[in-house]
Specification:
Shape: globular
Helix content: 40-55%
Radius of gyration: 21 Å
Oligomer: single chain
Distance between the termini: 59 Å
Number of helices: 14
Number of strands: 12
Length: 326
């Protein structure tokens, strides 16, 4: 059986489409866990209506604690041998479960992944991956072929439920919680990774993103360090230059979030400088090396930070704050 975990928060507008796509699956041995994460719209009522019509659907109502907590709630209550995630505003093709289940049976104990289709208005974009089997000793080939940052989301994957229950989402990670879970899962999963050519998952792009919100310096820095520890554990076990390259790039990206909180700190020069020093030179160097699409101003700022010129960096931030206030 496959457990389908759907975190639901104020998704009444999209929920029928999501659940109906599950009901249309050609593979029928599934359970659907709808985790209502404190919705204030009609989402909870819609979930209950579906549960009353199909005994394979279970609904859980809880206080709002975020998508990661809702997913963990579902994971711990999953009964299937395998688990998948679907976001409440997304939907899947009729063979979504079948193609991944058949692959998991063929390559027992594997992680199965497939691509997705992004929808924006009438436009479609296909994010595909090669149809390949990566053995345990081919992990770094996987990181060479696949940009994990693009495919690290919790969706489009068939997980082993027992391994997933020992992994769970780390709620200290804010912007890259899917990436963190994925890498920790790989660290614990000592079997094949199978990627499929098919794209049976549909994702609709909406304006606004949780990943653009900032949660304060301490929380962002804590998340960065937790993510770094996850990567170090994987490298210690499996090694791999390609994996390390992708991990360093992700750390550079996450450091940008930490920098954004410092740029927003208008308390004092000493406060900002202390925070810059706390981050550490290594993270500033990674941010400088791997995030070159930022403006010239921020490239200069990060260069100063990577060289340890904190006072000059603070002057640049003061200029940035002054220009932003005009």
């Amino acid at each position: 059986m496959i457990s389908i975990i759907v975190p639901v928060y104020n998704a009444a507008r999209y929920l029928h489409r999501c659940v109906n796509s599950v009901l249309s699956q050609s593979y029928t041995d599934w359970e659907l866990l709808l985790v209502d994460d404190g919705s204030t719209d009609e989402s909870g009522i819609i979930c209950d209506e579906y549960a009353s019509q199909d005994q394979r659907i279970r609904v859980f109502h809880k206080s709002n604690e975020g998508a990661s907590d809702a997913r963990n709630y579902g994971i711990l209550r999953a009964s299937g041998k395998y688990s998948v995630f679907i976001d409440a505003d997304d939907w899947v093709g009729s063979d979504y479960l079948k193609v991944m289940y058949d692959t998991a049976v063929k390559y027992y104990g594997s992680l199965v992944m497939q691509g997705l289709v992004g929808i924006r208005g009438i436009e479609k974009s296909f994010l595909t991956m090669p149809g390949t089997v990566y053995g345990v000793r081919q992990r770094d080939k996987f990181f060479e072929d696949i940009n994990v940052f693009r495919f690290c989301g919790s969706c489009c994957k068939l997980f082993d439920t027992e391994v997933l229950k020992t992994t769970l989402y780390d709620k200290n990670i804010i912007a890259a919680e899917d990436y963190d879970l994925f890498v920790r899962y790989l660290t614990k999963m000592h079997s094949d990774i199978v990627t499929l050519i098919v794209c049976e998952y549909y994702y609709e792009n909406h304006d606004g993103s949780v990943s653009t919100r900032l949660y304060g310096f301490e929380k962002e820095l804590s998340g960065l360090r937790v993510l770094d520890n996850t990567f170090q554990e994987y490298i210690h076990m499996y090694g791999g230059d390609n994996a390390k390259l992708q991990f360093d790039e992700m750390l550079g990206y996450y450091t940008e979030r930490v920098l954004a909180t410092i740029c927003g700190d208008k308390t004092s020069h000493s406060s900002r400088i202390a925070k810059m020093k706390t981050v550490g030179k290594r993270y500033w160097m990674l941010s400088t090396k791997y995030n070159k699409k930022t403006s010239f101003f921020f490239r200069v700022l990060k260069f100063m930070l990577s060289k340890g010129y904190m006072r000059i960096a603070d002057i640049l931030i003061s200029v940035y704050q002054l220009k932003s206030s005009l």
